[in-house]
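[job 0417] fold request received: tRNA N6-adenosine threonylcarbamoyltransferase
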Amino acid sequence: MGKSATVLAIETSCDETGVAVVTGKKSGNRYELTVREHLLHSQIATHKKTGGVVPEVAAREHAVQLPRLLVALSKKIPLAALMQEVDAIAVTAGPGLVTSLLVGVEVTKTIALAWEKPLVPVNHLEGHVYASLLKPNKGERHKQRDFVFPLLVLIVSGGHTELVLMKQHLNYRILGTTRDDAAGEAFDKTAKLLGLPYPGGPALSTLARTGDPTAITFPRPMLKSDNLEFSFSGLKTAVATYLKKQKRINRRDVAASIELAIVDALVGKTIRAVERYRPAGVVIAGGVAANRLLRSELEKALKQTAPKTKFFTPLLAYTTDNGAMIGAAGVIRYLNGTKSQPATLRVNPHLPLK
Ligand code: KG4
Ligand code: ZN
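[job 0417] inference complete; emitting structure tokens
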């Protein structure tokens, strides 16, 4: 006999305001997740003006958008019905921008108090990991499976680059991290050097599609070193130097060469971890998991090195920040007994994954 639960989930850790209702079913140690509703407000247009996220501006926009999304949600599921259905309210407690996190957490506390429901604090990175278990809406064909363990996780977001080993659900051992910039940051900073708009990752990747990735050999720091660490700040310096020195620049070739340098570093270290730990599955998590080259190169490399390894990728809609991924992790946490109270829940901008 399985257990099931439904959570209302709220995400405001950075520059996307997300609200979702997610149901989870647990049979033994396996989970099946369904996204009932999923609403998102992207702040990209706001942050484009400043070329990046200004934390104070992001928090103020969450304060405007979160109530709007909750009103929109109430039009899909009347609040009285939602209150009946929901077992708990999940919210991102960290890591992220402190003022942005506070908006989501304080609103969540208020709902939890009014509805007399428990809170489930969720680590944003855990949300990215569990995004891969979310199915598409009804009608779309998609083979859904639960994770297999040990599972190697490559977290690649705007703030984090980590290789993590999961022996089972909700269990994390950090194998390696970045010594400086995160992979998403490397995309964003080099894209800025090329004059591309915020957020740089998708813009650079689009420009790269028609460029020659072998035109310029940018450094792949640490790729040869026998560890599972990353470093991306040297790439930014190399690109700045190249752009300063060259008289004629083919921006498409530069973009394609940058993208390949980042993807090579990520794939190289992931394969090194696969060889060392022989996981049953590999999953990519975080905004950079939307990158097409990363997906295809990692899939290719896995087929060559460890063809039996299962490869999990999130649906594109759930790669960058959203409420559904917080609902996914939140409902699994809830089914495993995680609960918190409004009076004691605190945000932690540096919340570790554990
Ligand atoms: O996970 P996310 O939405 O926010 C954080 O938790 O940081 O990740 C955002 C990052 C940004 O750096 C963005 O440029 C990058 O993900 N990104 C991409 C792509 N889509 C988003 N990077 C490369 N290629 C993409 N297609
Ligand atoms: Zn994120």
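[job 0417] notes: The two ends are 28 Å apart (CA to CA). Residues 3-142+318-335 form a domain with the Nucleotidyltransferase; domain 5 fold (CATH 3.30.420.40).
[job 0417] exit 0
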